[in-house]
Amino acid sequence: MMFERFTKDARAVVKGAVEQCEEAGAQTVDAEHLLLALLDHGAGRGSFALAALGLAERRESVARALDEARRRAGLSQAEADALAGLGIDVSEIVSRVEEAHGVGAMAGDRKDNGWWGGHRSFSRGAKDVLEKSLRIAVARRERSIGDEHLLLALTARPGVPAEVLADHGVTYESVTRVLGGGGEVKAG
């Protein structure tokens, strides 16, 4: 694949995402795992951008927001709001399902210890982030894919990670500004 173009920091984030997935007992590595691994990495240009934007010390808030979305079966808040406009109360549905089947039942992760383990595959969303990071690096005429490209891809791809990042003040534009050194950087 394209991993030979990944920098040491980007590879560490991808490896960290696999570890996040394993710790969560999830079957597939999702874009959310990439975001958490990026927050935990602490080195590289992407981590620098997150720190400059005030997100590094707010990891728990990000993790909570990702957990809430996971409990909603991966629906973003915007999607839940759209369904509410149609008279569908997602939080009520989640409550009923969890009452009948246990907390986290809609997340789709089986946490049985008998799972055969080993290799974790990447979800379509995680693959999209990796592919988008390549496209961003190429568009910026950069030879390698760094953790900053992973962060830019997470902010550019619609979905829960981008929504959570935006809710915490991290957007494609703010990351680009920090990485380019131009403009004022606002914390948090």
Automatic annotation (TrEMBL):
Keyword Repeat in the entry? The reply is: yes
Keywords from the UniProt entry: Repeat
Instruction: Note whether Nucleotidyltransferase occurs among the keywords.
Output: no
| Pfam families from the UniProt entry | Clp_N (PF02861)
Q: Fetch the PROSITE patterns from UniProt.
A: CLP_R
Q: Which Gene3D superfamilies match?
A: Clp, N-terminal domain
The Clp R domain sits at 3-188
Tell me the superkingdom of the source. Bacteria
- Indicate what this protein is called per its UniProt record: Peptidase
Could you tell me which species this protein originates from?
Streptomyces spinoverrucosus
